[in-house]
Every structure is written in C-alpha cells, then in structure tokens.
Amino acid sequence: MLSPRKLLALAGIRPRKRYGQNFLVNGSAARRIARLSVAQARPGTRMLEIGAGTGALTIALLEEGADVTALEIDPELVALLRSLPELAAARIVEADASNFDYRAWSGTDAWRVAGNLPYNVATALMLQLVEMDGGPDALTVMVQKDVAERLTASPGTPAYGSLSVAIQYAMTVKLAFTLAPQSFFPPPKVYSSVVELRRRAEPAARVRDRTLFWKVVRGAFAYRRKTLVNSLALSLDIDRAAIVRALELSNISPELRGERLDLSDFARLADALAEG
Ligand code: SAM
To answer: What is the SS3 assignment for 41?
Structure first.
C-alpha cells in the first residue's frame, strides 16, 4: 500500500485532529475491510466511502472491483486523492458527510457504505445513514472499540443503550475485528473495531407509532440509575399513572431498569402507551 506518512510528507500536509485524521497504515486491515464491504453485495451495488483520507481503503475497495465514490471533507486531502493514478477509477467528492445529499447521489441504486469513520461524528453519521429513507443496504465501518461494543450490545450489559436499540432495530450487527492504535498514523488513544451492519428485510420489531417508540427508548435510558418507571416519568410528557398502566399491560415490571428491555419489550410498551 502507499504509505500515508510519505504521501502526507510529500504533499506537505499535517494530520488534522478536528477532522479525526488517523490514517490506516495496516495494508492487510484495509484489504480485509474492503473484502467484507463487498461480500454478498447485490449486482450493481454502489460503494460510498466516507472519509477517504490518503486513500488506503479506497484503493483496496477498487481492487475488490467496487464502484467507488469517496467523500472527503478536507480540501488538501481531496487534491492529494485526485492526484493519485491508483485512484483514477474512483469518484472523489469534496463533501461533509453530515450534510451530503445521499438521495441525489444514489438515486434508486442499491448502495453500501465503507469507511474508517472520523471518530467525532461516527455515531451521529451511522444513525443518520441507518434511519434515512432509501439508506444503504450495509455499512462496514471502523469505529472506536467502545462504540462497536455499544452497537453490538445485548440487553442487560453495561454497553447496551439507545444507540444499540436504534441500530439493531434496522440492522444486524457483527463485530469483525479490532485493531491496536499502532495500525494508524498518527496513533489514536484508543483501540478501533470494524463492525458489519446489514439491513434487515424487516425492522426487528413492529411498532404502531415510530416517533413514540423512539421517545420511549430514549426515555428508558435517560436516567440509567433510576427504575424504568421513574426514568420514563421524568423524560416523557406522559402521566405517571398512564406509564404504570402501560407497563402492566405489556407485562414489564416498573422496577426494572431500561437496560433490561429488549427490542420487542420496547415495542410492546410503546404500543401500550400509544393506546393511552
Ligand atoms: N479512510 C482513511 C484511512 O483509513 O486511512 C482516513 C480515515 S480518518 C479516521 C477519517 C477521514 O474522514 C479523514 O480523512 C477526515 O478528513 C475525513 N472526515 C472527517 N470528517 C468528515 C466529514 N464530516 N465528512 C467527510 N469526511 C470527513
């Protein structure tokens, strides 16, 4: 692989913290992410890489035969990427992934996301991509190890929270592998993990009112040390007695903590609250 350190030195570019720039220097990890990204894709699927940096993953994706569009926010890196003959087959787009027009780019084509995500915006970006209409079929992304733990967490574990529920509602999530800081330049302070998110054919639970469902999920985790009934009563604009009634109807003890509830518990509870 092209050495990010050398590429940056030649171009006179210093890594910028505010853009979460920790470039992958581990070629076999880049190839592994690329292979996972394209695995079992429907024919004609387009690949959107978020945060191409110095192109380590972009090149690996092209080598896997992917049809790649790569977003990068930093104009200096965009110029560097556009100068590399190895990337001639990729579309390099200077854009902020937080407000990119995904719909206009994808049209009706199937698409996937790959990327070593900038850590400061990773969770917000994943939620945006998973929840949008016409979103990607799959995401293969590198995130901080603790974020990966939240994405894959099961009920009753400390990492389980509203992020776990929001992502698992729409996607299956699998931890692929973990990398030490030395796999990056400059090395970050924490370990990083690659996770594979695949869109479910149907959401994991049926709910009558999605907005209320999300309010209930967020409300249940809003005060993690309090019991479910207290956390909900403090965060929802719903009468405490109505909450107690809905919990009884859904067969959920008010004394539990929110982290004990799985997706179907949340769905039952939200439906009971919707009934009033
Ligand atoms: N993919 C490269 C690699 O693996 O070496 C770079 C990964 S680095 C962790 C994250 C990249 O995302 C940086 O190049 C950074 O400039 C870019 N970036 C940061 N915020 C972004 C945003 N909002 N939209 C698009 N790119 C962004």
So the answer is: coil
Tens digit of pLDDT at every position of the chain (276 positions):
789 999 999 999 999 999 999 999 999 999 999 999 999 999 999 999 999 999 999 999 999 999 999 999 999 999 999 999 999 999 999 999 999 999 999 999 999 999 999 999 999 999 999 999 999 999 999 999 999 999 999 999 999 999 999 999 999 999 999 999 999 999 999 999 999 999 999 999 999 999 999 999 999 999 999 999 999 999 999 999 999 999 999 999 999 999 999 999 999 999 999 987
- 35 phi/psi in degrees, rounded to 5: -65, -45
The answer to whether the Cα torsion of 250, 256, 260, 266 is positive or negative is positive
Among 19, 71, 117, 119, name the best residue to mutate to test ligand 1's pocket (greatest count of ligand atoms within 8 A of Cβ): 19
Residue among 145, 150, 211, 228 at smallest CA distance from 183: 145
**Same domain for 225 and 193?**
no
Do 10 and 117 lie in one domain? The reply is: yes
* Distance of alpha carbon 113 from alpha carbon 101, whole angstroms: 14
Give the nearest ligand 1 atom to 22 CA: 9
Return the residue matching tokens 């330049």. 185
Centre of ligand 1 from the C-alpha of residue 77, in Å: 9
Range of the domain at 214: 210-275
Same domain, 168 and 269: no
Q: What is the CATH number of the domain that holds 257?
A: 1.10.8.100
Q: Are 25 and 184 in contact (CB under 8 A)?
A: yes
Residue type, 161: G
**Residue given tokens 């309090």 in the structure block:** 226
For the chain, the domain total comes to 2
| Phi, psi torsion values for 82, nearest 5 degrees | -70, -20
